[in-house]
Every structure is written in C-alpha cells, then in structure tokens.
Amino acid sequence: FDKWTDGQRRRILVDLLERCSLSQQKFCAQQLQARVPTEAVDFTTRLPRVLSLYIFSFLDPRSLCRCAQVSWHWKYLSELDQLWMLKCLRFGWLLNFCPTPFEQGVWKKLYVEMVRELRLTRPQTPSKDEFIVADVQAVKSNVPERKLSVAGRGTARGRKELPPWRSSDRNPTDTIRYNYLDNCDPIEQARQA
C-alpha cells in the first residue's frame, strides 16, 4: 500500500467502502472526524445551549436581528424569549397576557411593536434664527466693595472693567460658534455667518 500512487490508493479505498456495511462506514466516518479537524464549525452547535444564550445576551436588538439571518440554528437562538424578555423589561414593557408554552417569539414581537409606536425620528437641529444665546451677566457678590481686590473694583472713572473673556460689544461678530449637531462642515458654517 505504501508503494502505490495516490490514484491507486483512492480506488482501493472507494472499493473497500462500497463493500462495507452501514455500521462499518459509520465507524470509518468517526475515525476520520477524529483524525481530520473540521473547519468552520458553528460554535453554537458545539457549546451547550445555556452558554450560547449567554453569549447572545450581550448583543443589542439590531445585532440579534442580524444574527437571525445567519442560519436556522442562530435564528432559533436569537428569537428566544429568554433574550428578548430582558430587553423589554429594561424599558418597563410588559405583556398583557400570559403566553402558552407553545408560543415562541412573543417578547420579540412586543419589542418590535413598542419600538414602532415610539415613531423614532432623527433629531432636528433648529435654524440659526431659533437659537437663543443668553446674555452673560456678572455675578453679584455679598462681599462689601472695599474688600475686593484692585483689579475687581473697576477703573478710576467708576466704569466697571470687563473680565478678559468679554468684549465691550454685546453682539460680537468675530467669534465663530460651531454646532456639532449640524451636519455642515465648520468651514462652510463660517462662510455662511
């Protein structure tokens, strides 16, 4: 057998397997599985169901829905009520009936319905005219004026000196304010201002 070519060995093995009974072929299959590592094995089929559910419990609802598209086994695992019940209870969403043991996916359906009722939309940024900029006023203290330092008392003419971050103009035009909720480029916003 050692001196035969690969093609000769394959013909002999095929001939031997054809002559074997079903139990002998199963034995050969077990021997091959033990010697040849299988590739791309689904971990959820090898792990106990409890551990697979524990791993899936860390996923958010969108990822769970994506996992349901991988395979039939993942679909079964990702739609179990043990996963979706915790996500519903976190928001205080409860079932108004007691499901039978034969009903599956009740908590996922509740989650989907409740999210649809929320009618989530993207946040809208108000226009620049709607923004209200509060006027900053100096904080009045209860400390008598004679105890303040020289820099805090003001000028000799009786006019108060402004703090270094304020200018004398009530509506400064030299500052560019960026609203990070806008999707515009900051340079484009500066040109529009």
TrEMBL record:
PANTHER family: EPITHELIAL CELL-TRANSFORMING SEQUENCE 2 ONCOGENE-LIKE, F-BOX ONLY PROTEIN 16
Protein name listed in UniProt: FBX16 protein
Alphabetized CDD domains for the sequence: F-box_FBXO16 (cd22172)
Chain ranges of the F-box domain: 41-87
Compositional bias per record (Basic and acidic residues), positions renumbered to this chain: 158-172
Domain of life where this protein originates: Eukaryota
Region of interest (Disordered), residue spans: 150-173
